[in-house]
């Protein structure tokens, strides 16, 4: 293993670690910080892959990730949380050790799923594909186990991080146009989420998505 | 028959016996400095032990032989563990006595008997401490085994001397699996040796005691032995960590001249570990007892991620 | 005298003991001395035969011309049966000595005649199960063993719990026996192509290449049947009921060795009779082993009845043995005989060890029961002062079962871990990731076992007596003590000299799998155990023992050079002054943290009731197996429902029954004319 591949696998490990951190963190600002760290690792990893593969458009993706996911989105969310005065602790639906065990099972599952691709691929980064898929699944798991709407959007963004990572590790990144499009989508999604938060909050006086079941007809 | 491995062995055990209280003294000193207090000096724990040896023993009326036997056993087992772990050199005659798993089991003997001693006198405190201690130990064990598993994946061995030799001779590679294993090991060490945030070694508040609750009734030389063994336990767990993750500097087989260097390396490493430990303890508050499963759960998570990332990423 | 003669002599001795029992019915005390000495002697012969068979690598078979016409009884003595004979014989020898003291307590209260009769039959059943070499005699011995143990469980049949436990035991034992019967039926049928009846011998099955489907069916049925006998979760339900209510010497035998006949059955069917299997069989055994081990010990921790705790802990240990067997099967099917031999050795070693320490613990619990007439730990405490011998011996058992060096439990547990640690060399990536998780479950189990036995010993023997009235408690007599002392010594010896034992066992994996570990395990002499290679891992029980003792003595002497007094003082009561014995931690409170963490696995009912004089509080706790609700109650409900429907047929009038017979005859005549 050359040095770049080593650094890349360490970064993959860190991304996985932050994904688990997002899964178990109780404090809402802690979640934001973890999300920002994940973005940072992703951005560095993209740059490293870009350097090793000589794919220079990845530098642009890397910078874009840095700006959008490490600085802009956390800032927007921070402002949102501050404005909405959300409770600092976010309760989870499942207890933490159980969530962790499910998470470990998901990682093993994604390793099993991606093992045929590992056999076929010849890229240096092929081994990180399993981590990428696991990050997507852990993001989804986070959305399932959390009740607060803000934590759900963080879960959603973490899933997107996973997809982005999968793209870099499986094919050295998507074409730049696609990536720009996705980045724009994310940004707009964040704004729309923000607007919805205000609406949900004015309707239910809370951001607990459990309250949504009041919308059912029989109530 | 080569003589000097035996000399190194005895020298190492002597070092463990003396440096363990000094290491505790170093930690307390750092803590005092960070909190802006005046410290009692490096040698205060050593002086405490000496003082206790000269005191008379006060035994509870109900105490049985288990209570009196436990301090000696705990001390003996810990000393044996100190002879097995490669701290200065890998060339130890005792090192083949036990691999890491057996070493953990040696500490388990000590814990088993301290827990029994806690129940022997028949107070509510003793039983409470024993019950909590056994609970924490049970939850720490899977994480510990997983960490050992990860380390043994890299070095193909569970014998500590062998692990040291494999790592020092191999080319250095950044391994995410080892990084995760270190994290797991730090958390396990904190839990096993009863440091903040799992247990507070300085407390005598009834609801927060774990280790102290079990040894509450000890006095005199019995207390001295148990305290000494407890200090050695922290020292030895740190040494296990150093041997399995940062072994550079430990003297190789048949190389007596590396020994002075090994002592310096060891001192530096322990100083750094002390600083890290104090920073952790200062930054965190003691947890509720039922948060400890989450703490150890994350240790298990790190260890498992280490094992998984060995297969996925390496 | 050959090995076979020695073993047969032991069975004949048991038969003749049965024959002379009527002579002593009137003199019960003499009856106890005579029969238990004779069973002890016959056990020694079984042990000698077994030891010699394994070390001499004997493989003899004989055909006894008794039994049904054309179905002679085949017996075979090979190392596998020799090993299990040794295990059974060794414990039954110790237990026989112990029984003299233990059963004497019943004299004058009730007749012990049928107890000694069934005790002999029980031993005979176990010996002949491992000797049988055809399905027919195997099942007969199996049933003899089951029936005899049923009557032993029912010894004190005036108590409802005994009758209930006995019934449950009988039901599960027979469901299991049917599965075993079907499994043998499939194998015997496949051996002759479902044509003849000569396939019932094990030899015929051995020589048959089974098709994949039939082999899997036979294996699953056999595993189900033997699992029911071994108490594998979820078929364990009878075990914690039946073992505690039997007399303690019988509990020791049931937990220590009767369960092992099921292990014998599993090894015999998979490795010997079928011989060639895919890896998922091993995975099935491994997964059930893991579930059994973890759940078994969690249930054990929750118990307040000391014998129930021990019974659940037997469930756990059966799980650990199955884990070893499962690993061995997985390694075998990936053609890694050396690792497979390691795992199988670990399983067999644990079988031997568990027989010793569980026998010792049940005998210890029996001694406590004998002295205090109490099985509930909540009322005990402080027995170490009144029963020092029993306490020390029980402690040896607790240390052994908690897998602490240098005693025997540690060695087999350590070997199991070594087998786990070698799993990364398996060629399947998925198994590589999943098996370590299994290893952590074993670690959790082992640590919980230590917690469980700290509780068992601490609550029973340490602290103060918790009951309201302190009864007159005395130490047990020398028969009981020597039975326990011998078992305790063998626990230590098995822990200190593992290389010798492995050298002895080694022929089993060699014959069943085709590789052996003794060469590498004993590479550095008997002092060090190096299962695969000394670079990989090593352990030395003797050095641990010697160094610990030496340091201990040195510390003791150095600290006693200067005379310093020991003052006895009352407990520190925090200035509260009203510390009572009821304030001690008891069995329920000790397990509370673990109950809270793993509570979702049980159905727990907690109630705090106010009331009584002076507003006293009452705390009620009920912890139950979830399997009752999940598995057994539905089955029971369905069978009651079906029984009620069928019950309508019972009219109670003779004409109705005559009509049933008449219709049956008509139908038969129509179909089989």
Structure description:
The complex is a heterotrimer of chains A (219), B (314) and C (673). By secondary structure, chain A is mostly helical. Chain A has one domain (3-215). Chain A has helices spanning 3-24, 28-53, 57-84, 96-120, 129-145, 149-171, 176-204. In chain A, helix 1 runs antiparallel to helix 2 (28-53), helix 1 (3-24) runs parallel beside helix 5 and helix 6 runs antiparallel to helix 7. The longest helix of chain A has 29 residues, at 176-204. The termini of chain A are far apart. By secondary structure, chain B is mainly alpha-helical. Chain B has one domain. Chain B has eleven helices and one strand. The radius of gyration of chain B is 19 Å and the shape is globular. By secondary structure, chain C is mainly alpha-helical. Chain C is built from 26 helices and five strands. In chain C, the strands form two sheets. Chain C has a two-stranded antiparallel sheet. In chain C, helix 2 runs antiparallel to helix 3 (79-104), helix 5 packs antiparallel against helix 10 and helix 13 (337-372) runs antiparallel to helix 15 (388-401). Chain C is globular. The chains are: A mainly alpha (219), B mainly alpha (314), C mainly alpha (673). Chains B and C meet through strand 1, helix 3, helix 4, helix 5 and helix 9 of B and helix 15, helix 16, helix 17, helix 22 and strand 3 of C.
For this entry, give a set of tags.
heterotrimer; B: 314 residues; mainly alpha; globular; C: 673 residues; two-stranded antiparallel ribbon
- Counting DSSP H or I runs of 4 or more residues, the number of helices of chain B is 11
Number of domains of chain A: 1
Which range best describes the helical content of chain A: under 10%, 10-25%, 25-40%, 40-55%, 55-70% or over 70%?
over 70%
Q: SSE order of chain B in H/E notation?
A: HHEHHHHHHHHH
Please, what is the average pLDDT of chain A?
83
Largest sheet of chain A: none
Taking all Cα atoms into account, the compactness measure Rg of chain B is: 19 Å
- The secondary-structure element order of chain A is HHHHHHH
User: Low-confidence segments of chain B, ≥5 residues, pLDDT <50?
Assistant: none
Q: How helical, in percent, are the residues of chain B? A: 55-70%
Q: How widely separated are the two ends of chain B?
A: 42 Å
Low-pLDDT segments of chain A? none
Portion of residues in beta strands of chain A equals under 5%
Instruction: State the shape of chain A.
Output: globular
Shape of chain B: globular
Q: Which structural category fits the helices and strands of chain A?
A: mainly alpha
- What can be said about the biggest beta sheet of chain B? none
């Amino acid at each position: 293993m050359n040095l770049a591949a080593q650094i890349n696998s360490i970064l993959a490990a860190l991304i996985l670690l932050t994904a688990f951190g997002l899964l178990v963190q109780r404090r809402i600002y802690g979640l934001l910080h973890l999300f920002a760290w994940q973005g940072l690792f992703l951005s560095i990893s993209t740059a490293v892959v870009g350097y090793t593969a000589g794919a220079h458009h990845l530098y642009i993706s890397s910078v874009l990730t840095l700006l959008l996911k490490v600085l802009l989105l956390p800032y927007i969310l921070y402002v949102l949380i501050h404005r909405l005065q959300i409770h600092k602790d976010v309760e989870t639906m499942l207890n933490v050790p159980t969530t962790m065990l499910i998470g470990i099972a998901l990682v093993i599952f994604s390793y099993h799923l991606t093992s045929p691709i590992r056999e076929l691929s010849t890229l240096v980064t092929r081994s990180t594909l399993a981590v990428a898929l696991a990050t997507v699944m852990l993001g989804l798991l986070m959305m399932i186990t959390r009740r607060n709407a803000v934590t759900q959007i963080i879960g959603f963004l973490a899933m997107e991080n996973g997809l982005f990572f999968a793209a870099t590790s499986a094919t050295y990144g998507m074409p730049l146009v696609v990536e720009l499009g996705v980045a724009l989508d994310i940004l707009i999604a964040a704004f729309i989420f923000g607007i919805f938060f205000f609406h949900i909050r004015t309707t239910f006086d809370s951001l607990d998505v459990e309250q949504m079941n009041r919308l059912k007809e029989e109530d | 028959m080569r003589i000097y491995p035996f000399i190194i062995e005895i020298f190492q055990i002597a070092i463990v016996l003396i440096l363990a209280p000094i290491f505790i003294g170093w930690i307390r000193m750092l803590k005092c400095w960070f909190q802006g207090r005046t410290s009692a000096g490096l040698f205060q724990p050593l002086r405490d032990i000496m003082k206790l040896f000269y005191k008379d023993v006060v035994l509870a009326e109900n105490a049985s032989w288990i209570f009196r036997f436990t301090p000696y056993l705990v001390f003996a087992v810990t000393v044996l563990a100190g002879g097995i772990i490669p701290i200065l050199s890998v060339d130890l005659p005792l090192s083949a006595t036990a691999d890491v798993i057996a070493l953990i089991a040696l500490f388990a003997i000590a814990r088993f008997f301290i827990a029994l001693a806690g129940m022997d006198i028949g107070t509510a405190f003793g039983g409470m401490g024993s019950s909590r201690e056994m609970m924490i130990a049970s939850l720490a064990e899977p994480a510990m085994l997983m960490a050992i598993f990860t380390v043994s994946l890299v070095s193909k061995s569970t014998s500590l001397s062998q692990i040291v030799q494999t790592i020092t001779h191999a080319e250095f590679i950044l391994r995410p699996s080892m990084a995760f294993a270190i994290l797991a090991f730090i958390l396990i060490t904190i839990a096993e040796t009863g440091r903040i945030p799992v247990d507070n070694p300085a407390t005598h508040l009834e609801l927060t005691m774990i280790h102290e609750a079990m040894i509450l009734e000890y006095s005199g030389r019995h207390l001295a032995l148990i305290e000494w063994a407890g200090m050695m336990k922290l020292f030895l767990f740190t040494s296990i960590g150093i041997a399995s993750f940062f072994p550079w500097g430990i003297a190789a087989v048949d190389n007596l001249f590396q020994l002075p260097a090994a002592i310096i390396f060891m001192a530096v490493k322990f100083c750094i570990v002390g600083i890290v430990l104090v920073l952790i303890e200062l930054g965190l508050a003691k947890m509720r007892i039922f948060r400890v499963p989450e703490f150890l759960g994350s240790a298990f998570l790190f260890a498992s991620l280490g094992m998984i990332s060995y297969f996925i990423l390496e | 005298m050959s090995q076979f003669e020695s073993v047969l002599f032991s069975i004949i001795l048991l038969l003749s003991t049965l024959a002379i029992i009527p002579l002593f019915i009137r003199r019960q005390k003499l009856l106890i001395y005579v029969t238990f000495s004779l069973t002890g002697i016959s056990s020694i012969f079984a042990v000698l035969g077994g030891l010699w068979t394994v070390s001499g690598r004997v493989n003899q078979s004989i055909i006894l011309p008794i039994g049904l016409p054309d179905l002679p009884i085949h017996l075979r003595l090979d190392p596998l049966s020799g090993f299990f004979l040794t295990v059974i014989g060794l414990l039954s020898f110790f237990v026989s000595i112990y029984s003299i003291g233990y059963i004497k307590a019943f004299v004058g209260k009730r007749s012990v005649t049928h107890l000694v009769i069934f005790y002999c039959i029980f031993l005979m059943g176990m010996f002949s199960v491992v000797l049988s070499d055809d399905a027919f005699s195997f099942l007969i011995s199996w049933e003899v063993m089951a029936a005899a143990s049923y009557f032993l469980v029912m010894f004190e049949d005036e108590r409802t719990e005994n009758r209930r436990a006995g019934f449950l035991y009988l039901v599960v034992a027979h469901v299991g026996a049917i599965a075993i019967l079907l499994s043998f039926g499939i194998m015997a049928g496949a051996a002759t192509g479902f044509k003849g009846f000569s396939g019932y011998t094990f030899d015929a099955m051995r020589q048959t290449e089974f098709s994949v489907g039939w082999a899997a069916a036979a294996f699953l049925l056999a595993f189900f049947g033997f699992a029911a006998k071994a108490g594998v979760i979820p078929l364990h339900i009878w075990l914690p009921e039946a073992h505690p209510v039997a007399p303690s010497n019988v509990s020791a035998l049931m937990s220590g060795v009767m369960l092992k006949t099921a292990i014998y059955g599993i090894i015999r069917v998979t490795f010997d009779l079928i011989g060639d299997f895919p890896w998922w069989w091993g995975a099935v055994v491994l997964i059930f082993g893991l579930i059994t081990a973890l759940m078994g010990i969690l249930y054990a921790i929750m118990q307040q009845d000391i014998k129930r705790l021990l019974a659940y802990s037997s469930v756990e240990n059966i799980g650990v043995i199955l884990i070893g067997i499962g690993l061995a099967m997985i390694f075998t099917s990936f053609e890694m005989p050396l690792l497979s031999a390691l795992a199988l050795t670990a399983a067999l070693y644990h079988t031997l060890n568990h027989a010793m320490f569980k026998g010792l613990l049940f005998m210890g619990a029996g001694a406590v029961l004998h002295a205090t007439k109490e099985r509930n730990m909540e009322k005990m405490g402080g027995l170490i002062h009144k029963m020092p011998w029993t306490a020390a011996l029980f402690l040896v058992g607790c240390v052994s079962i908690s897998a602490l060096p240098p005693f025997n439990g540690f060695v087999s547990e350590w070997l199991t871990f070594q087998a786990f640690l070698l799993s990364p060399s398996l060629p399947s990536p998925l198994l590589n990731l999943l098996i370590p998780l299994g290893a952590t479950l074993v670690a959790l189990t082992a640590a919980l076992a230590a917690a469980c036995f700290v509780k068992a010993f601490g609550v029973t023997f340490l602290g103060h007596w918790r009951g309201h009235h302190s009864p007159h408690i005395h130490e047990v007599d020398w028969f009981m003590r020597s039975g326990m002392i011998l078992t305790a010594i063998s626990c230590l010896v098995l822990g200190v000299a593992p290389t010798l034992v492995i050298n002895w066992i080694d022929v089993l994996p060699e014959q069943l799998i085709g590789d052996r570990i003794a060469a590498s395990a004993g590479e550095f002499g008997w002092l060090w155990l190096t299962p695969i290679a000394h670079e990989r891992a090593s352990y030395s029980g003797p050095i641990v023992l010697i160094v610990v003792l030496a340091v201990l003595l040195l510390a003791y002497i150095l600290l006693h050079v200067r005379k310093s007094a020991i003052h006895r003082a009352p407990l520190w009561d925090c200035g509260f002054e009203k510390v009572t014995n009821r304030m001690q931690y008891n069995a329920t409170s000790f397990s509370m943290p673990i109950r809270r963490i793993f509570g979702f696995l049980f159905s727990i009912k907690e109630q705090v009731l106010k009331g009584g004089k002076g507003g006293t509080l009452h705390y009620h706790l009920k912890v139950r197996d979830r399997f009752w609700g999940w598995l057994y109650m539905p089955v029971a409900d369905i069978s009651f429902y079906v029984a009620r429907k069928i019950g309508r047929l019972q009219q109670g009038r003779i004409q109705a029954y005559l009509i049933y017979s008449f219709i049956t005859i008509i139908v038969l005549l129509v179909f089989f004319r």
